[in-house]
Input
Amino acid sequence: MADLDVGLIGAGGIARAHLPAWTALGARVTILSTDGNAEQLADRYAEFGVKAVDSLTELLDRSSVVDLCTPTFTHHELALEAIAAGRHVVCEKPLALTVGEAREMADAAEAAGVLLFPAHVVRYFPAYAALAGSVAAGRIGAPAVLRLTRSGRFPSWAPWFADPALSGGILVDQMIHDLDIARLLAGDVVRVHAQVRGHQGPDAPEGAVTTGTAVLTHASGAISHVLGVWGPADLPFRTTFRVAGPDGILEHDSTTHTGFRVLAQGQRPLGEGIPGSPMTESPYLTELREFAAAVTDGPTPRVSARDGVEAVRIAVAAAESARTGEPVELKLPEEAGR
Output
């Protein structure tokens, strides 16, 4: 379907979720990675013509689209280089570690006339897509109280994940999914009060646990409570939501409604998996199909670069609140200088 030349940067867990989607879409894929795994991953998909290269210049020369599946702290520089070369960009969440960097990426893409697509894949999971559709259709009225949770194994397989200086920590890395969903459902956020407890930083001891909570006040008056947990190796991956409005409640628990499971994606340490669905197509395929359609004159994707910027803005505010112990007031996007 996708007549695209894709440059995939990174060969870790998320790259191994994106690559099968690109090959399923018929894209021609080139891989670049600094960890030495690009050749190995390309070999596994050799039947689809996947090639590994040694330099960003070579990757850009072979690509019309760049897919960033790299650690968060690399996103800003790589995205700007790809955009400057006139390439459309898929960027894993979060777009960047700071609001300024995220805005610079979005502004550069807009000025260059290319698409910057934040890969907020949770919007594409069937339960969350159904939730968003139901709320948009007014089935429960205006959302008033939202509770969203996300828990899984402490990310010890790569030290940068748990280092707030490199990933933003649990609030910016893991919980940004549900902060984005809360804003999608209840509108812009004007106040954030957050807290982090447990281990923060790399070199986590065995059995390390981190919890993050964030209470969001939306301009609409709605209140969202978001909980994130990084726990022991045997902690099952689980997500829940409960969204209440004047006309009803919408709720979901991934452990009681097995619409998805955690897939190992091949050779992975115990507990390190990527959420996938055995009952529907991969949400990574769904999101990349939507992106591919958009860059070939199709409809606009459901996630915009500005959505990615706002998710970073809320998450960074949450991290600041957790650091100071005080709530952080947020201007509306039009007042903050989109």
The chain has twelve helices and 15 strands.
